[in-house]
Design brief:
Layout (H helix, E strand, L loop, with lengths): L4 E5 H9 L4 E6 L2 E2 L1 E6 L14 E4 L5 H12 L8 E4 L5 H7 L4 E5 L4 H5 L3 E6 H4 L6 E6 H6 L1 H20 L1 H12 L3 H9 L5 E2 L7 H13 L37
Parallel strand pairs: 5-6, 5-7
Antiparallel strand pairs: 1-9, 2-9, 3-10, 4-7, 4-8
Helix pairs in contact: 2-10, 7-8, 8-9
């Protein structure tokens, strides 16, 4: 079965478009939600203090690497100033605790896990580096858009309304999500409330400014070969004008309507 829609990292969606794959970005998954962690005993106060250190990232193609590229540029640094290593996100908290790495940057809940177990502390939240940062994007193949636009519209509406419900019911959202993420409910409650704007499920319409900035740093990070027509990669016509919270029974997650 061929995948016709999925969430994916924004830079990878641009790479697919650069490779002429017929897809469009139709919505966002959330904003922010990533965190730079250092050991609790670390004296680091900024990215400059990590010069020469070993820094774990999910991959060269990750959103987190784009943000670090931006942050280093703002502090007069270049990628070679830091020893970047690619690492699976679930391994990062234990690697930090063991001293195998000096810092890592990852999407939640893998950062909060180090906070709660007492081995790590926050150096930066995503919002500190790149306010309203785009995490994952909803990508749809063009044939589904052409042949079944009603499915795409219903998909986007469901994501938008579920996000609004989560914004209004963060503790309940943690309860609903825990079994799907296979994560402890208390950990997800922490992610969604400490602080409350650690991750956002509002303002999920991809803007030209979002895409232009992502493209700029994807080129700097060597992810994209060159500029693409970022205005042509997005299709916003399926985004509802009025977003109301979904009807979700937190005691029966499968009853979401």
């Amino acid at each position: 079965m061929r995948l016709v829609f999925t969430f994916m990292l924004a830079p990878l969606a641009m790479v697919l478009r650069e490779q002429k794959v017929p897809i469009h970005i139709v919505y966002l998954g959330h904003r922010d939600g990533s965190t730079v962690m250092v050991p609790k005993s670390s004296t680091a106060k900024s990215i400059v203090d990590l010069r020469g250190k070993t820094f774990a990232r999910p991959s060269k193609f990750s959103n987190q690497y784009l943000m670090i590229t931006k942050l280093m540029e703002e502090h007069g640094m270049v990628p070679s100033d830091i020893n970047f290593v690619d690492m699976p996100p679930p391994d990062m908290p234990s690697a930090l605790a063991a001293g195998a790495i000096d810092a890592y940057f990852i999407g939640e809940p893998h950062a909060a896990k180090a906070e709660l177990n007492g081995t790590g502390r926050v150096l930066y939240h995503a919002k500190d580096i790149w306010p309203r940062f785009v995490s994952c994007v909803l990508v749809v193949r063009d044939e589904l858009i052409a042949e079944h636009p009603e499915i795409v519209r219903d998909l986007v509406r469901g994501i938008a309304e579920s996000g609004e419900w989560a914004e209004q019911n963060r503790l309940l959202a943690a309860k609903v999500a825990a079994p799907y993420f296979r994560q402890d409910q208390k950990l997800l409650e922490y992610v969604l409330t400490q602080p409350p704007d650690r991750v956002s499920y509002r303002h999920l319409t991809p803007t030209d400014e979002d895409l232009e900035t992502i493209m700029k740093y994807a080129i700097k990070a060597g992810i994209l070969k060159g500029p693409i027509d970022y205005k042509d990669i997005v299709d916003r016509r399926f985004i509802p004008a009025d977003i109301k919270p979904a009807n979700i029974d937190a005691n029966s997650p499968t009853s979401a309507k």
